[in-house]
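User: Hey, my collaborator sent me this sequence without any context and asked if I could get a structure. I don't really work with proteins. Can you help?
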Amino acid sequence: MKRVCFLINDLENIEPTNCLVLTNALLARGDRVYLGAIDRLILHLDSVLVSAWPVDTPLKAGDLFLSPTDQLLDLNEVDVVWVLGFGRRESFLDKMQLLWTLSHRTRVINSVDALMYLHSKYHIGTLADDVFRYPETWASSDFDLLWRVFREQGGTWVVKPPARSMGRDVFLLRQDDPNARVILQHMTGNGDGEFCIMQRYVPEIISGEKRVLIAGGQVVGQYKRVAQDDHRTNLHQGALPLPCDLDTQEAELCARLGRYLNQVGACFAGVDLVYPYVLEVNVLSPGGILTIWELTGQNLAPLVIERVIG
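Assistant: No problem. I've predicted the 3D structure and written it out in structure-token form, which is a compact way to encode the shape of the chain:
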């Protein structure tokens, strides 16, 4: 029997997310599960504690998140700590430092290195080679620099924050758009030095983008997302999910990425793919398990747990 603590955001109710399906899959195989609020990590002497509560029965969407009998759980005494949420942005570095300290005694999924450096969208571009491509990308807080690149190089670009999800603040910049300059000023903080990513638009994405789930270094499932109401392929922004397969080249690319992700401790990740382009790698609770379940009737949660935890 494994003892697993999921670190999640402090919410009022349980939502239909990875937390729900992974918790229920662990309970079904007889493991012990705790839910801990990541914003309530505590360091005491040589132990990292968290405000947590045990889960004794399967979760249902809408269940209360908080228990009236909160207790402190010593994370050194569980087998696995699985991070499913970052909580408040203001204390991100404090939490990563606490998790890094914890990781010397308890297994943390995904690794702190993976959470720090892959989630930000910067690192994946350095891996591009003759096997896969990464769209031309600039990352900066300097509006003047990005605006000059945009105007001099021409074409269509995507502007997005480096470490957010669900398609929030993702803009398409076209040369004839009178709002392009305003958008880029906004994304760089209107002079406050906020970083943003400006990435060359990949027109092939019109046919859809594939989300590939990789667990323990191996592909466990995939589906396609096709934009509907605007350019974004995120389900939270109205994209249409469709079942799909990987062709030989896509499968080879994902197998190679899977080996690398496993080496750096990204045990469960979602790769966004428009072959031969890899657009992003999501290492914080990547969506897809529930969508694939709805599309195909296959619940991947037990397989993900087997590949990640054993």
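In plain terms: The CA atoms of residues 67 and 303 lie 29 Å apart. You can pass these tokens on to your collaborator as they are.
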